Amino acid sequence: MGSSDRLFSRQRTIHQILGGGLFADVMLWRQKNLTAGILVVTLAAWVVFEVSGYTLVSLSSSVFLLLFTILFLWAKSAAILNRPAPPLPHLHLSEEVINEAATLIRNHINVLLSVFEDIALGRDSKMFIKVALSLLLMSVIGSFTDFLTLGYISLFIVLTVPALYERYEDHNDTYSLKSYRKLQHLYTRFDAVCINKVQKWILEAKKLS
Questions:
Q1: Is the pTM of this model over 0.85?
Q2: For residue 6, what are the contacts with CB-CB under 8 A and spacing of at least 6?
Q3: Which residues contact 24 (CB under 8 A, 6 or more apart)?
Q4: Contact, 119 vs 111, CB < 8 A?
Q5: Interior CA angle at 190 toward 184 and 195, to 5°?
Q6: Backbone phi, then psi, for 81, in 5-degree steps?
Q7: CA-CA distances (angstroms) from residue 140 to 131, 135, 147, 153, 161?
Q8: How much is the pLDDT for 8?
Q9: For the residues of the chain, what is the DSSP string, one character each?
Q10: What is the pLDDT at residue 1?
Q11: Domain named Reticulon: which ranges (predicted)?
């Protein structure tokens, strides 16, 4: 299948689009044990929260209290009995790691602020519709489930949909292209009928004021 027959005429593989490396390997099930482990651990955490009634704060506090108590008693008894201390690595974040994380966070925040500015100033009608539909979808889904369940479902989708898409890539691209072209046609009609009228109304209101 040529690049023109791919969704968005892309030339890169799904693995490359996801950034390559371990992150892409996990999402595409190329590290099957790790991906399955993440799903199982997350499912176990979801069951613990739902069945036991623990909240994230209470469970985290209990786990850390137990961990610190064990390590403290281990270290004290080791000193008394002349035994080796707990085998802990040196816990330290380098300045380089902090700077990289700060740069990554800053870049993402700037992208979000740029999108917000474009929407607020009416520069990008397509982005406004995308964001509005996404927020509406999140609102509808959120009304049927709680945050924890939504988080697990989202993780499950992230770890399954890309892998299934890659496995049946040719069929998915064929049907997705047809649907995408139909949506583009519908948006063009919507833009011509509604968005342009709203923009003209705003301009006329500004002139009158």
A1: no
A2: 173
A3: 14, 15, 16, 18, 30
A4: no
A5: 120
A6: -95, 5
A7: 14, 9, 13, 15, 21
A8: 53
A9: --GGGSGGG--S-HHHHTTSHHHHHHHTTSSHHHHHHHHHHHHHHHHHHHHH---HHHHHHHHHHHHHHHHHHHHHHHHHHT-PPP-PPP----HHHHHHHHHHHHHHHHHHHHHHHHHHTT--HHHHHHHHHHHHHHHHHHTTS-HHHHHHHHHHHHTTHHHHHHHTHHHHHHHHHHHHHHHHHHHHHHIIIIIHHHHHHHHHHHHH-
A10: 52
A11: 23-209
Task: Name residues whose C-beta falls within 8 Å of residue 191's C-beta, 6 or more positions apart in sequence.
Answer: 125
Write out the two tokens for 43: 């499912």
Q: Which amino acid is at 72?
A: F
Q: What's residue 6's pLDDT?
A: 58
Q: Looking up tokens 């064990």, which residue turns up?
A: 70
**Number of CB atoms found within 10 A of residue 26's CB:** 19
Say if residues 26 and 38 touch (Cβ distance below 8 Å): yes
Structure tokens of 82? 């002349």
pLDDT along the chain (209 residues), means of 10: 53 74 82 89 83 77 90 89 81 84 90 89 82 86 78 86 81 76 79 71 70
> Per the structure block, which two tokens stand in for 182?
């139909």
Angle between helices 95-120 and 125-142 (to 10 degrees): 110
